[in-house]
Amino acid sequence: xxxxxxxxxxxxxxxxxxxxxxxxxxxxxxxxxxxxxxxxxxxxxxxxxxxxxxxxxxxxxxxxxxxxxxxxxxxxxxxxxxxxxxxxxxxxxxxxxxxxxxxxxx
Length: 106
What we know:
The protein is mainly α. The chain has seven helices and two strands. The longest helix has 11 residues, at about 85-95. The termini are far apart.
């Protein structure tokens, strides 16, 4: 394979075909894929991402709160924007919903 090396502002870059680049990515590097409905709701910005992902997973607030080790009222405050949520709470929620912490930050 012959890959072109070029420089931008003194830094070397390698130009490779997109297919090869994608093959090099690990699962953690790949961008998330959301259903069209979830993507639309996220981009509209009317609902908190936690609520959108929770509903997409078919979880009740009680289910998510219990799995994330937080109270249901606290989860409600996060979903309604009354509270931002602690880093620990958001990490736990992200883990349960199988999304990144960045996915939950508005």
